[in-house]
Each structure stands twice: as structure tokens, then as C-alpha cells.
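Journal club prep — side note

Before the paper discussion, L.F. wants everyone to see what a predicted structure for a comparable chain looks like in C-alpha cell form. Sequence:
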Amino acid sequence: AADDPLLIRGMKRELSEEIDLERAALGFHMLGWINDDQSEVGRVHLGLAVVAQLDHRPAIRETDRMEGCWQALELLQPQDPAWESWSRYLIPPLLQWSRSLEETRSP
């Protein structure tokens, strides 16, 4: 919405460029910053890692250029050379965040 803070509007715009959401995200959780001075793109960009809470599975928007599938976080291997550097950096904190959620939900 237009009254959202600038950062939230930017996240929503970035999400809509990559994926097709049936409904708006229920909320966002910031994991941290990503800085990668080792790559050409990384030297001129700073990333903000955010988890979007959804109540449905989004679809990939540009199916002519990319494909995707759902996998359990535990199956993701950050050392896989197919990942871009930011994705490699993000997998361990995502796993840690997911585990902390499970711990808070356990009786």
C-alpha cells in the first residue's frame, strides 16, 4: 500500500518482479544484511535478507527464463556451485531462523 514505509514498498516491488503472489504477505521478518565484495554485482549492491510470511505458495513469474521448486530448508546445500553468492550466504541464517521458530513452538 502507498502508506507502507519505503523499505516495505521496496520489498513488495522486488517480490512482485520475481514471483506472483495470490495475496499480500502476512508479514516480514528481517534476517540481516548481505554484503559481498567478492563479486562484481556484490561490490555495488547491499542486500537486505527478509523472510516474507505467506499463507500460500507463490508462483514464479518469468517461467520462460527461470524455474523453481519447493524444497525443505534442510536439503539446501550452501556450498552448491549453482547458488549465487548471496544465496550461499543466506542459507545458514535461514536454517538457524527456522530452527529457532521450531524451538519456540515446541511444548
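L.F.'s comment for the group: The mean pLDDT is 88. Keep this in mind when we get to the figures.
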